[in-house]
Design brief:
With about 475 residues, this protein is an alpha/beta fold. About 30% of the residues lie in helices and about 25% in strands. The protein folds into two domains: about 5-340, Isopropylmalate Dehydrogenase (3-Layer(aba) Sandwich); about 375-475, Alpha-Beta Plaits (2-Layer Sandwich), CATH 3.30.70. It binds nicotinamide-adenine-dinucleotide (NAD).
């Protein structure tokens, strides 16, 4: 017999231990060839004063096994506790979040009987880097970071996933009509990589109308790839409209490690009563079995689960009078799945996993080889200022002009307020003041001198952003009316 694959298992909080026991019972009965290494994470660890919610020794297990099956955990309310999910994702570079959202009609109620969508969410970048600042009395800032390599690997993962799972189309959601640089890059990378997969259809939607279409006609989508924030929101929407968030599992995939879980939380009010539905975690475990190259076991488990659902054996959360046959608890549900191992569903579509979806795709040559010519052409100086009108600010700031750097525009919350601003424009205490080099390029020395002049005039600059061109193209957004 082949050597057992070690996996790290966290039983979690609330309903976690019950659904994890049920899941492990089913997959072991199905013949999963695994060696379980339990670790403790979550509430108890947080309350011991470890703000990350995980003991240092547990990282060793994760680094050794590189496979993590995790039950939901409770993040205690109040400040100071870091989300274990976010920590695990970023520490291990789990850049792809894969969430299949499938309807099980007519056995589980849904308005979208034919829905079968896989959401692939970028997991590390965007506003989720958590880089935030309070800059003035009135203003908070969150940085949205989108990188070319980050976009390339998630988009490539989506196309590779589509190819190895026999999917026909990959759709990209973004909002590059507003965020022309960040979402614009994501879209551009999508278009570039799509060309390498002529066998797979591709399309792009602005996320607002895309989300509306996804909620209305999900059957017209297949694989959908998107940046972190949109993916976070829309993968919950997709799971819910497929039937229930309680049914979906998800995989977080990195180059070395991967984490598998249910998408729901620890449901503390249902804990310890043998009520919870283990399906989300079980389907997460199915994704894990495919990942560790035990596709036969994954197929046995998934088909037995589909048959159980089809036979109307349902936990309370999916029980519907007239459709369901028997309301069962967590343990009885698990027993029902075990009893059906080897069976296939008759009405629902049976699954057949053949091989592991490819791990992180190889690095590819789409990265730009020749670096562009980068030139410093100015600076945006952000001020905390509440001493008057935009015109007064413009007037005072012009005294700081010099060394080729000249004030060209002032905006407040992105709206142009100087020169020729309108008195109707609402303003706060947070001003962006753009100084551009008259001669085309400038230097750090000239910029530092400008900041010194501003400081000497008593201006509180709370942030600066250098303005660069790349091969002559602006590396900064234009102000409407500039
Ligand atoms: P939740 O998902 O725990 O519960 C939402 C609702 O769904 C509740 O009514 C609950 O009873 C029901 N529900 C959830 N899973 C179920 C299941 N398997 N079977 C039957 N019913 C189920 O969300 P919440 O109440 O917002 O969060 C509770 C805790 O879970 C919080 O501490 C939160 O931080 C944590 N959480 C953890 C994760 C994770 O570890 N991945 C994810 C989300 C929330």
């Amino acid at each position: 017999m082949a050597e057992k694959t070690p996996i790290t298992v966290a039983y979690g909080d609330g309903i976690g231990p019950e659904i994890m026991s049920a899941t492990l019972h089913i997959i072991t009965e199905a013949g999963a060839n695994i060696e379980i290494e339990p670790i403790e994470v979550g509430e108890k660890v947080y309350l011991r004063g470890i703000s990350a919610g995980i003991e240092p020794s547990a990282w060793e297990s994760l680094r050794r096994t590189q496979v993590f099956l995790k039950a939901p955990i409770t993040t205690p309310q109040g400040g100071g506790y870091k989300s274990l999910n976010v920590t695990t994702r970023t520490t291990f570079g789990l850049y792809a979040n894969v969430r299949p959202c499938v309807a099980y009609y007519p056995f589980i109620d849904t308005k979208h009987p034919n829905m079968d969508v896989v959401i692939i969410r970028e997991n590390e970048e965007d506003t989720y880097t958590g880089i935030e600042y309070r800059q003035t009395h009135d203003m908070m800032e969150s940085l949205k970071l989108i990188s070319r390599p980050g976009s390339e690997r998630i988009v490539r993962y989506a196309f590779e996933y589509a190819r190895s799972n026999n999917r026909k189309k990959v759709t990209c959601f973004m909002k590059d009509n507003i965020m022309k640089l960040t979402d614009g890059l994501f879209h551009k990378v999508f278009d570039e990589i799509a060309k390498e997969y002529p066998d797979i259809q591709n399309e792009s939607w602005i996320v607002d109308i895309g989300a509306a279409k996804l909620a209305d006609t999900p059957e017209s989508f297949d694989v959908v790839v998107m940046p972190n924030l949109y993916g976070d929101i829309l993968s919950d929407v997709a799971a819910q409209i497929a039937g229930s968030v309680g049914l979906a599992g998800s995989a977080n995939i990195g180059e070395q490690c991967a984490m598998f879980e249910a998408i729901h939380g620890s449901a503390p009010r249902r804990a310890g009563q043998n009520l919870a539905n283990p399906s989300g975690l079980l389907l997460g475990a199915v994704l894990m079995l495919v990942h560790i190259n035990q596709p036969d076991v994954a197929t046995r488990v998934h088909n037995a689960w589909l048959k159980t659902i089809e036979d109307g054996i349902h936990t309370y959360d999916i029980y519907t009078e007239g459709v369901s046959k028997q309301k069962v608890g967590t343990k009885e549900f698990a027993d029902a799945v075990v009893a059906r191992l080897g069976q296939r569903p008759e009405k629902l579509k049976a699954v057949n996993y053949t091989s592991a979806p490819r791990k992180a795709p190889e690095k590819h040559a789409t990265q730009q080889t020749a670096p562009e010519k980068k030139e410093l052409v100015g600076i945006d100086v952000f001020l905390d200022w509440s001493n008057g009108s935009a015109n007064q600010l413009g007037e005072q700031l012009q005294h700081a002009n010099g060394d080729g750097l000249e004030l060209t525009i002032i905006t407040n919350r992105g709206a142009k307020v100087w020169p020729n601003g309108l008195p109707e424009t609402f303003t706060t205490d947070h001003w962006r003041c753009r100084f551009l080099s008259k001669g085309g390029s400038t230097s750090h020395k000239q910029i530092t001198a400008l900041l010194q002049r501003l400081a000497a005039s008593g201006f509180d600059f709370i942030k600066t952003e250098n303005l660069y061109t790349f091969d002559g193209q602006n590396g900064f957004s234009q102000v409407p009316g500039e």
